[in-house]
Amino acid sequence: MKSYIHATITSTLAWAGNIYDLLLITYVYSFLEKIFNLSFFDVSLLFSLGLLGRVVGGIIFGSVADKKGRKFTLMIGTGGYSVFQAILAFSPNVLTLFLSRFIEGIFMGAQWTAGTVLAYENSPVNLRSFIISVVQSGYGLGYMLTGITYLLFLPYIDYEWRFFLLVGAFPLILLPYIKVKVKESSVSNYVNNKIRLMDYHRVILNASLAMSGMFVAYFVVFGNYTILAEDWAKMSPEILGDLMTIANLFLAVSFIIFGRLASVISVRKLIYIGIAGLGISLIFSVPLIPNILSMFIGTIFYAFFTGFWPLMPLLVAQSVPHEVRGLISGLTYNIGGFVGGLSNTIIGLIANVQSLHLWVDLLGYLFISVVFVSVITWPKYEIKS
């Protein structure tokens, strides 16, 4: 099997585990509120700490990946977030809970920063857009697996919720495979000291805004969907579990479809199609009046049109040289993730169950527009290395 295939498989699965651990906690908010005496704002902050940690991890380990290697950083990141997910699952107090979530986020940032770039740099040039989309499909795969796990644990989750969270340590099994089968990127050990980060300030700005817009548009919906579905729309846990599984299966497939289309259709045109699809489906996913059928269908389409996401890291990778590719990719992606989490925290502070859907729609449409503006003003030059 060719080396880039091993790099793609491990990066995709490590990314799936990353997202799995990031979002698994949203299913047990009610237990965390009860056991640790937390408010809705507190659990929203807990979720956001993982995203703040990602920014820190993207900055620290982005530089490490550029200087010491992508493979090493991928292993550190994957092992680290898995271990701290296990610690989080059995946190004895609030301090341990919040601290383990933040440190877990740091290692999550390391994993994405290294894994995506490793797969990109190992793959043939004519397959890079497709490879990026396959790696990003791990997002949908990871979220889909949270829905499946939730359905499996549902009869026991009242007293087994800690073991439900512990399942998030499973990516540890990837480490031997990465060690033995994945080769280091052929360009990741070369650093050109003449490359200055600020030479690419336009890419950093536009990418950070676009990533932020994407994450806010995604997290305001899916970060709050268990509350919207169960508490506001009175959707049953079984239907919610089915919806999250189906929607994220569509998300995973759409990542691959958009990536494959990028070889024959302009990347920007595909992003505009995705933006239009998000704008149309959002009001059905989160309607003004509770309607379970509308929410079910709308959420599936909203997840599908999120499939243009892999095209944003692809634009970044094409726009900067390999000497700073890991740092800029990790930094901008994780800045976006933090802003997305911050928006979720703000909603937790100002919204209640009855007004939550209005804030979700407002922020969703606002930040979908931010993505559009960021892409339409994207710097013109591209670097193909």
TrEMBL record:
One Pfam family matching this protein: MFS_1
SUPFAM superfamilies from the UniProt entry: MFS general substrate transporter
Keywords from the UniProt entry: Membrane, Transmembrane, Transmembrane helix
Topology in membrane: Multi-pass membrane protein
Predominant location category: membrane
Positions of the Major facilitator superfamily (MFS) profile domain: 7-381
Any one GO CC term of the record: plasma membrane
Cellular location(s): Membrane
Record-linked InterPro entries: MFS, MFS_dom, MFS_trans_sf, Sugar_transporter_CS
Keyword Membrane applies: yes
Residues passing through the membrane, by range: 12-32, 44-65, 72-90, 102-120, 140-157, 163-182, 203-227, 239-258, 270-289, 295-316, 328-350, 356-378
Record's keyword annotation contains Membrane: yes
GO MF annotations in UniProt: carboxylic acid transmembrane transporter activity
PANTHER family, per database record: CARBOXYLIC ACID TRANSPORTER PROTEIN HOMOLOG
Full protein name: MFS transporter
